[in-house]
Specification:
- The structure is a single chain.
- 77% of the residues lie in helices and 0% in strands.
- The chain is mostly helical and 187 residues long.
Length: 187
């Protein structure tokens, strides 16, 4: 969940972890139930990552990057689409034809989002923020991921201050549900 370093390193490592989870899911046959566990883990990682970006990265982008409002709005819209797909996928089981269709759409949406962040947003952020500011932002992102929800909540607020107020409580409820269900434990 936390990788250390500045915000760009932290989020880039998250991106590689998500890529790895997609590859692991793809390596299993269509009806293999282990795919459900991997999709649950993928969901946890994507939701935590998105919440942390919405709470800390995008407000920084809005404040310091030229055209930051437009960029942040686009990234948040990408998150909304990913979260909607995750919510649909939550109700599917491996072997269901919708499972693979939704998974393919999710992978495409995530890949485009990651490419945009790594090729456009991160370099712009690096230009306008000091190394110390990027380190501090990395720590805030790691802290937010620890408290973030682990399940998709498409109707939850995605901008401060409401998301910063509500996310920890929702995250606690999600983690209790996960613990009771044995969800998100890597096997």
């Amino acid at each position: 969940m936390g990788h250390g370093g500045n915000v760009i390193n932290e989020l880039t490592q998250d991106h590689r972890e998500v890529d790895s989870l997609f590859a692991q899911i793809q390596a299993h046959t269509a009806a293999d139930q282990h795919r459900r566990d991997l999709v649950d883990q993928l969901t946890i990682e994507l939701v935590r990552h998105a919440i942390a970006e919405e709470q800390h990265l995008y407000p920084t982008v809005r404040r310091y990057v030229d055209d930051g409002d437009d960029m942040a709005d686009k990234e948040i819209a990408d998150h909304a689409e990913v979260e909607r797909l995750l919510k649909e996928l939550e109700g599917c089981e491996p072997g269901d034809e919708r499972f693979d269709m939704l998974l393919a759409r999710l992978r495409s949406a995530v890949t485009e989002h990651v490419k945009d962040e790594e090729e456009r947003l991160f370099p712009l952020l690096e230009e306008v923020c000091s190394a110390q500011a990027l380190e501090e932002l990395g720590q805030r992102v790691r802290s937010a991921k620890e408290k973030a929800p682990t399940r998709p909540h498409p109707s939850a607020p995605d901008t401060p201050p409401a998301n910063k107020i509500l996310a920890p409580g929702v995250g606690m409820v999600d983690r209790v549900r996960d613990m009771l269900a044995g969800r998100g434990t890597r096997s």
